[in-house]
């Protein structure tokens, strides 16, 4: 699962493996000095050693190394004395340790770019995937849950999996080299030790069995808690207006307690790993110490006391890598649980697919046609739109009216392919929009929505959003057409004024005029107006309507109208009810028809 993220960092991994091998070799060499040091200190070996040529046949390489090493040490003792020899052995021990720790540091340092790079890559991939997914995906997911996956779950991957990469690379190498050393030192003791290890491994596995499932549960509760927070921040005005602070607090405390209980289970099970491995390791050392001591005390022992002490040192040294590997075995399931949640986004299917031979559309020249268009959401529960037939000639203004839930917004969302039609055809200049490149299709369309969607940035950057290399002169021109220039210049920093989160420092009318200026600067041939003046006061509506009139005068416009008085002059009005068109015509014609449109108009006139 993580392999695809590790692949770009193979060079770093190779370096880490190389340094860890040298660290293990230097560590073993430093420990081998224990044997001659003990012999010198306690005068345990009275054997007279003679040098054996390295190419002597019929002698085991291990015995050859040991004999010649003892020969050199004995020689130095004879020439310089035991004290000076001990000093030299100590210096050599220090040098080996310095080399070992340097390689250890190097291997850890080289893992830092891997860990940080993998986390960056995952966050970037998740963010890019979020940008590429259709709007329908987000209608089925909580925003707080998506934020939790990108923040908490990715952080968990960093803390659990990537931080364990070092242990997963280093410890198997150390275990391999230490185990080989143990086999060379005494195969009898090593085989006995191997019989003890499976029991230790079984006990560790029993503890970690449920960790992944509990981690998934904990991360789910974390997502619920973030969703509560996101809803609270978005609805703070209503919460205060309805004096619902206590109710919201109770909901949050309940969710927070559930997260606490779930995460406590994970933490307790994880905390159990170290003491259990410590205890089992001590038991293993105790059993091996008993067995090795028995061998030494017996006649014709295959191992002497200094070599046994060396064996025990190496055996104790192998315990730490085993414990770290066990710790990684606990951390990785937690990270894999989070990886599953992140993969729900990364592996989500984007049903808005672009054909390989899709066409670039450079301009809009004739008309837009909805031919028998129908639409239903992915859950398939009934059609939202049924048999829609609309023709929008270039330069004309078409209005969609109807009660909330009649399908107006869904209909206009089909044009830029925010959703794909379920049936029928949607054509621009006679070409199906499914045959067009999505980027070039959307470059022809501008949007002004009921809720002005602005970003926490300057006024200049919000107007210039999506338009590369826009100049101040072009932005000012667009702002003047949108009736926004005057209020912008009243700000202390003018066009460099930061407007806050979602434009919170601006009034509703000001936010709407900024979004109109943004559409003007984009200069699209097709314009979608989604109830752009419905939430404004009379004065703001007048200013915005003036800006909209300038914006639509030379463009093909599809307007969703809440206030019917704003679309009296539309070239064609389509009246929608329950996802179908029930009436169509100009304003006067529909009034004379004395049908559903007139009923809506009369209700607003009262």
CATH class group of the largest domain? Mainly Alpha
CA-CA gap between termini = 63 Å
In the CATH hierarchy, the architecture of the largest domain is: Up-down Bundle
- The figure for the number of domains is 2
Can you give the mean pLDDT? 79
* Total count of helical runs of at least 4 residues: 22
The counted number of beta strands is 10
Provide the structure class.
alpha/beta
List strands and helices in order, with pairings:
Elements: H1 3-6, H2 10-32, H3 34-42, H4 61-80, H5 82-132, H6 135-139, H7 143-185, H8 187-208, H9 211-234, H10 236-241, H11 245-271, H12 273-297, H13 305-346, E1 367-375, E2 385-393, E3 397-401, H14 408-414, E4 423-428, E5 431-432, H15 438-443, E6 445-448, H16 459-463, H17 472-481, H18 485-490, H19 508-522, E7 526-530, H20 538-552, E8 556-560, E9 572-577, E10 580-585, H21 587-593, H22 596-605
Parallel strand pairs: 3-8, 3-9, 6-7, 7-8
Antiparallel strand pairs: 1-2, 1-4, 4-5, 9-10
Helix pairs in contact: 2-5, 2-7, 3-13, 4-5, 5-7, 7-8, 7-9, 7-13, 8-12, 9-11, 9-13, 12-13, 17-19, 19-20
